[in-house]
Design a protein that fits this description.
- The structure holds two protein chains of two kinds.
- By secondary structure, chain A is mostly helical.
- Chain A has a single domain, classed as Ferritin, core subunit, four-helix bundle (Ferritin, Up-down Bundle).
- Chain A has ten helices and no strands.
- In chain A, helix 1 crosses helix 8.
- Chain B has a single domain, classed as Phenylacetic acid degradation B (Ubiquitin-like (UB roll)).
- By secondary structure, chain B is of the alpha+beta class.
- The longest helix of chain B has 12 residues.
- Chain B has a three-stranded antiparallel beta sheet, with helices on one face.
- The chains are: A mainly alpha, B alpha+beta.
- Chains A and B meet through helix 2 and helix 6 of A and helix 1 of B.
């Protein structure tokens, strides 16, 4: 494939939104309240909308008649390049909102930088997505503050989710070979440059939420290179069942 | 989940120059959450450009039992409509 680095780079960006969108989508009809249920579903649909734009572009680059659906539904687990954070299970609302918050802060910083890419399609997608993601970040940050600085139980649940998901944050700033090549080409975002601002923003919100920052300096990684936690396989079997069972089916 | 959040009334303005109109209610723990919920529940299809929320308990409403004395006396007062009055022909632009 010509432009293989660009193809892989786009999947690296888009797979995060696909998998997180699927995770939040699992809550459709099961949210803690009617209002929160709709809010989560909206976030999920925003992410799927962004994913479609990325995959359509990737399919164009791949050529050979590939479609966005092939990319979404017909890859194997090791070919998904999302970070481990976004595939972690919903567990409870604290985990759901903490995972969302830890990703949203990154996502917003990332899209702000992607607007400076030399690739016009990526710039257009970034500009469209940034308003949606600004709202996601506001929504999840407000919930972190509300629950962290809420009752004794809500505080303890948010603290537990932060403690357990913190280990997945550092991977956001790892770079694959495709990432590095695209940064050099002026197309990709140098994620290492976002790291300081990320932890500053996250820390500021957690302080207001009276949540302690975990001290552990040991972090999980692997998703960007296709080495996932056990959770992704189960998600993919749900997501891919229809296309695998009835190849080429359409609604 | 037992929802013990207070109830809020939501008002949406659909366009500049139009007034906010009541469009429904929702539950939220505080005003900020009420605004976010209103955005998510009532403006998903481009319904508005401005949202007001007010806690339902802060609204004083008329009692339907008093409808007779409150509203029926207006039924036979057609002269309160400007159209009741005949305008002299010399008056233009009214």
């Amino acid at each position: 494939m010509k432009n293989e680095n660009l193809y892989n780079y786009i999947l690296g960006v888009a797979d995060n939104s696909l998998i997180l969108g699927q995770r939040i989508g699992e809550l459709c009809g099961h949210g803690p309240s009617l209002e929160t249920d709709i809010a989560c579903t909206n976030v999920s649909l925003d992410l799927f909308g962004q994913v479609r734009s990325y995959y359509q572009y990737a399919a164009e680059i791949a050529g050979e008649g590939k479609t966005e659906d092939d990319i979404a539904f017909l890859r194997r687990e090791r070919q998904y390049k999302n970070v481990l954070l976004v595939e972690q299970p919903n567990t409870d609302f604290a985990y759901t909102i903490v995972r969302q918050f830890l990703f949203d802060v990154y996502h917003l910083l990332f899209l702000q930088e992607l607007q400076n890419s030399t690739d016009e399609t990526l710039v257009a997608i970034a500009k469209k997505s940034i308003k949606e993601v600004s709202y996601h970040e506001r929504f999840s940050s407000d919930w972190i503050k509300r629950l962290g600085d809420g009752t004794e139980v809500s505080h303890q649940k948010i603290q537990e989710a932060i403690n357990n998901l913190w280990t997945y944050t550092d991977e956001l700033f790892n770079q694959t070979d495709a990432d590095k090549a695209m940064v050099t080409a002026g197309v990709g975002v140098d994620v290492t440059s976002l790291k300081r601002k990320y932890y500053e923003t996250v820390t500021a919100v957690l302080e207001v939420a009276t949540i302690a920052i975990p001290e552990s300096k040991w972090f999980q990684k692997g998703g960007k290179n296709g080495v996932h936690t056990e959770h992704l396989g189960y998600m993919l079997s749900d997501m891919q069942y229809m296309q695998r069972t009835y190849p080429g089916m359409e609604w | 989940m037992k929802n013990n959040w207070p109830l809020w009334e939501v008002f949406i303005r659909s366009k500049n120059g139009l007034e906010h109109k009541h469009c429904g209610s929702l539950h939220a723990s505080d005003a900020e959450m009420a605004l976010e919920n209103a955005r998510d529940v009532y403006t998903r299809r481009l319904e508005g450009i401005s949202i007001w929320v007010v806690e339902s308990k802060d609204i004083t409403a008329s009692n339907p039992e008093n409808n007779g004395e409150l509203f029926e006396p207006a039924q036979d007062k057609v002269y309160r409509h400007p159209t009741f009055y005949k305008l002299p022909d010399e008056l233009k632009h009214m």
